[in-house]
Specification:
Helices cover 0% and strands 64% of the residues. It is an all-beta fold and 103 residues long.
């Protein structure tokens, strides 16, 4: 089984062919193909290649399935004894992708 570690949106993800990921929003159209070229590591059986920081000539291909808003995150700031409260909500834009190939 071939595995890779990619970086996108400031985060790192361990992926294999057929995996579905929920990552931060990409500006591509739904149904289009996406190529991740920031590959940090590839493992295939017993051989492992590690980049410094990225591997050259290695790409991970994916298909963009959907874009959506994540659940609401509540940000609540409170200071005791001063009657100071601040409540704020945030919904992150997310993208669902399916990994189609590691090359």
């Amino acid at each position: 089984m071939k595995l890779a570690v990619i970086e996108t949106g400031g985060k790192q993800y361990k992926v294999a062919v057929g995996d579905k990921l929920n990552i931060e929003k990409l500006d591509n159209a739904v149904g289009s193909d996406v190529v991740f070229d920031k590959v940090l590591l590839i493992a295939d059986g017993e051989s492992v290649e590690v980049g410094a920081p990225y591997l050259k000539g290695v790409k991970v291909e994916a298909k963009l399935l959907d874009t959506y808003k994540d659940k609401k995150k509540i940000v609540f700031k409170y200071r005791s004894k001063t009657r100071r409260r601040k409540k704020k909500g945030h919904r992150q834009q997310m993208t669902e992708v399916e990994i189609t190939g590691i090359k």
